[in-house]
Amino acid sequence: MTDTAPWLVVGLGNPGPEYARHRHNVGFMIADLIAQRAGLRFSKHRRVAADVAEGRLRVGGPRIVLVKPLTFMNLSGGPVAGLAQFYKVPVAQVIAVHDELDVPYEQLRLKQGGGEGGHNGLRSMSSSLGSKDYVRVRFGIGRPPGRQNPADFVLSDFSAVERKELDFFVDRAADAVEMVIERGLEPAQNQYHAS
What we know:
The protein has helices spanning 26-38, 77-86, 120-129, 150-154, 160-183, 185-194, and strands at residues 7-11, 43-44, 50-56, 63-69, 94-100, 108-112, 135-140.
């Protein structure tokens, strides 16, 4: 980790109001909350197809660049790689925040590297970055009920029952991202995998 490079926190999702509350857009929701907490505003980057918010996590804290790619999920890697190059961010300081079918709703899983588990946003990021060694903050959405197609499930809104606690879990995921940046991946795993 370098002191000069910021952390690149990538909320994965699809652009446009019609997707805003979908399970697949929970990465955008978490990025929005982190920006709000830090008093940062998103604006379109001048060179890359992404909305970015730059600043510090807190006064005197680590530098961050929050990212919401303006491409669709399966093309997220291009903007992420472009921004990593623009800000000179090493892959180990890139954090992908995304929905995860293989983790039950209410749970978070944090890891560095590994496979993409069929997640098109991660697959695109790994391909464009030329590495899988970025950090993932995986927000559990659980498996679809019955025989519902997973693609339809991720592109649908959270259920009424899930929405009752969604703000709490988004808040918790934002806490986890901030802890990874400030204290490291292992302490964050110890805290958020246990609860």
